[in-house]
């Protein structure tokens, strides 16, 4: 089944940068699309960014476009999220999540997360 | 971007009772909807995909139904471990989650 493990969270000042990493074990992460989903304290789930298995296609929520960059490191079997110009409203637990394999068509719409990491906390404060 | 509206926000029930959770989409998403369970301090867990298919290892007391804009997650008889927050999710237009329904004792 495999696991995902996030790292890289911490406290950063507004305007600062952090790089989160999501390491996959037990499966080849390049065989799956991966996304980052965040959850502010006491709030709901908020999709942030996604990357295809090949790494050739990336997606971003409007709220982070131009500030966050998602990428793959195939040698490390991991996905990273570079977060620049952080804002207070970016503070959250960041989860990486694996997209379930899809067959039979309409895979763009059948984009569901079947494996989640435990999350890493990002705090933005001066 | 499609907005998913979940109701009620909180559902107060007892173990053994039936829970019915609703998720309404702002436009039709066919049956391309998932449900997740999140227990306190844990990551979400996929329960239902394509509106009505149980994910691997999910107990049969969980069932999903609906299509178009109206969807329902039903827990036929609540177990103590089912008291949690439930989210619906779509990716037909944008990728969005509903605001969640908390099932509490």
Chain-wise SSE layout:
The complex is a heterodimer of chains A (126) and B (105).
Chain A: E1 3-7, E2 10-12, E3 18-25, E4 34-39, E5 45-51, E6 58-60, E7 68-73, E8 78-83, E9 92-99, E10 113-116, E11 120-124
Parallel strand pairs in A: 2-11
Antiparallel strand pairs in A: 1-3, 3-8, 4-5, 4-9, 5-6, 7-8, 9-10, 9-11
Chain B: E1 4-7, E2 10-12, E3 19-25, E4 33-38, E5 45-49, E6 53-54, E7 62-67, E8 70-75, E9 85-90, E10 96-97, E11 101-104
Parallel strand pairs in B: 2-11
Antiparallel strand pairs in B: 1-3, 3-8, 4-5, 4-9, 5-6, 7-8, 9-10, 9-11
In short:
The complex is a heterodimer of chains A (126) and B (105). Chain A has 126 residues and is mainly β.
Short key terms for the protein model shown above:
heterodimer; A: 126 residues; mainly beta; seven-stranded mixed sheet; four-stranded antiparallel sheet; 11 strands; 0% helix; B: 105 residues
Distance between the termini of chain B: 34 Å
| Helix content estimate of chain A | under 10%
Protein structure class of chain A = mainly beta
Helix-strand topology string of chain A = EEEEEEEEEEE
| Mean pLDDT figure of chain B | 97
Which segments of chain A are poorly predicted (pLDDT under 50) over 5 or more consecutive residues?
none
Helix percentage of chain B: under 10%
How much of the polypeptide of chain A forms β-strand, as a percent range?
Answer: over 45%
Order of helices and strands of chain B: EEEEEEEEEEE
Distance between the termini of chain A: 40 Å
- Strand count, sense and closure of the main sheet of chain B? 7 strands, mixed
Strand content of chain B: over 45%
Globally, the shape of chain A reads globular
Low-confidence spans of chain B: none
Biggest sheet record of chain A? 7 strands, mixed
Inertia-based shape of chain B: globular
DSSP helix count of chain A?
A: 0
The number of E-state strands of chain B comes to: 11
Q: Biggest interface: chains and residue counts?
A: A-B, 24 and 26 residues
Q: How does the helix and strand content of chain B classify structurally?
A: mainly beta
